[in-house]
Design brief:
Helices cover 56% and strands 11% of the residues. By secondary structure, the chain is α+β, with helices and mostly antiparallel strands. The protein has three domains: 110 residues, no CATH class; 139 residues, no CATH class; 137 residues, no CATH class. β2 and β3 form a beta hairpin. The longest helix has 37 residues.
Length: 465
């Protein structure tokens, strides 16, 4: 039979199947399957939840639409709600419930509560709970140790915790650049004190680590400020970080696993376990401390030979005030923290003439020697300052005189250094009371306006009669 004469069934017209677009949260669900492994422990589940929130956090700042000017906080909240909604609809997927349980252990209070509510609803529908949930005992803080430089500018804060008889440490590397900046976060087994001692035993080179115990309140105050800074200012551009890592020969995956972007949510939940400082303890530094320190500096032997005492006093006022505002004493900045401030905020917000800029290195040297003496760091502190100052002063001069930075000063309407006013010394409780008083005053004015309006209406009604 020829192909032409062979009996054939007529072909049916091809129907185009309409596939629903894949959810952007499907990848989260797929990755959550790892939480069903019987060997998964509770910390691993917390890490999964933290990195999931970290991915949303990064996307809220660096999404696909670069022209989108929507508030990153609003974007994050919207994405988080969509993620919970997507997981909550997976009635036959135990990994969805496992992911929700993990999300309910990390992040801020509102994210944990919403994740817990969705998880409970899914569990009520009969979805199987993850095995590690039975071992999710309450976490208890144990101790806090810091291992860092002599001046307190940079170092690792080791937060110790215990769960079910086992200890683990959340290790946070923080550097001070005119305020604490969270650089790296790592979760490791074992106690905080042992980890700090191990770091000192393994130190290499001439850099010496100074080990000190912090109170839980001190740790929470410092790390909460660093965490707030990350969440308010946003993460570094991931593409720029990747380029820097490749140029420096660093492992991008290792950097990602210790990035605060991925671990902020776990740290946030852990900090809420530490006691909060009293309102009186959260006040910024003392204005009297700033003024007395500047007076003592100008009367010191270190400042005696400076060419322009008025400029020296103005610069010292800025340095002391910013240190006080960073929850330090007026002489609290070391080379790293002062350098970070000078190369960033100072260069963009404080106006110097070209002549004044050339005099800054001499004032910096005198200020370094003065503050080192006041803090009692002796020859060791002087050695460290003298090692840091040449590069610091060179970098400052280069950055400050850069045309682009000068443009930023103009845009930000920089303050002439001699006009700088002390900002330290205002108690946060006073600020809150001031806001309350202002709100009450506004409310009272509104009530008076309303009464006046009613009175006018009554007068009008009387006229009509």
């Amino acid at each position: 039979m020829s192909p032409v004469s062979r009996s054939r069934k007529p072909k049916r017209p091809h129907k185009h199947v309409q596939h629903a677009p894949a959810s952007p949260y499907a990848k989260f669900l797929e990755e959550a399957k790892a939480l069903l492994d019987p060997e998964t422990d509770v910390v691993e589940a917390e890490l999964w939840g933290s990195f999931a929130l970290g991915a949303l956090f990064e996307t809220s700042w660096f999404g696909e639409d670069e022209a989108d000017e929507e508030d990153p906080d609003d974007v994050f909240e919207e994405q988080f709600g969509e993620l919970l909604d997507y997981f909550g609809k997976q009635k036959r997927r135990p990994e969805a419930l496992a992911g929700l349980r993990a999300l309910a252990m990390v992040g801020e209070e509102w994210t944990r509560e919403e994740a817990l509510r969705t998880a409970d609803e899914l569990a009520a529908a009969g979805v199987k709970e993850p095995g590690w949930l039975r071992r999710a005992h309450e976490v208890e803080p144990t101790s806090v140790f810091r291992a860092g430089d002599l001046f307190g500018d940079a170092g690792t804060i080791n937060l110790g915790f215990r769960r079910g008889g086992e200890e683990h440490t959340v290790s946070c590397y923080v550097s001070d650049r005119g305020g604490p900046v969270l650089e790296r976060v790592l979760v490791v087994p074992g106690g905080a004190a042992e980890l700090a001692e191990g770091m000192r035993a393994n130190e290499e080179g001439e850099a010496k680590l100074y080990i000190s115990e912090l109170t839980p309140v001190q740790a929470r105050t410092l790390l909460a400020e660093a965490l707030d800074r990350l969440l308010s200012e946003g993460p570094e551009d991931p593409e720029e970080l990747l380029a820097i890592a490749e140029e420096a020969g660093l492992d991008p995956e290792e950097l990602e696993m210790t990035s605060p972007v991925g671990l902020w949510a776990l740290l946030s939940a852990r900090l809420e376990l530490l006691p909060e400082p009293d309102v009186s303890d959260t006040a910024v530094g003392s204005a009297e401390d700033v003024r007395e320190t500047v007076e003592a500096f100008l009367a010191s032997k270190q400042a005696a030979e400076l060419a322009d005492p008025e400029l020296a006093g103005a610069l010292a006022t800025v340095f002391a005030d910013v240190a006080a505002l960073s929850d330090r004493t007026a002489v609290g900045f070391g080379p790293i923290s002062l350098g970070g401030y000078l190369l960033d905020e100072f260069a963009e917000t404080i106006e110097l003439t070209e002549v004044e800029a050339m005099l800054v290195p001499a004032v910096l040297t005198a200020w370094a020697e003065f503050t080192n003496e006041r803090r009692g760091f002796g020859e060791e502190g002087l050695r460290l300052w003298r090692e840091a100052l040449p590069e610091l002063t060179r970098a400052f001069t280069q950055v400050y005189l850069d045309d682009e930075v000068a443009g930023l000063r103009e845009e930000y309407e920089a303050i002439p250094v001699r006009d700088y006013k002390v900002n330290a010394g205002m108690d946060l409780s006073e600020v809150l009371q001031q806001l309350v008083d202002e709100a009450r005053g506004t409310e009272q004015e509104d009530d008076e306006d309303a009464d006046e309006y009613v009175f006018d209406v009554e007068d009008d009604e009387g006229d009509e009669e």
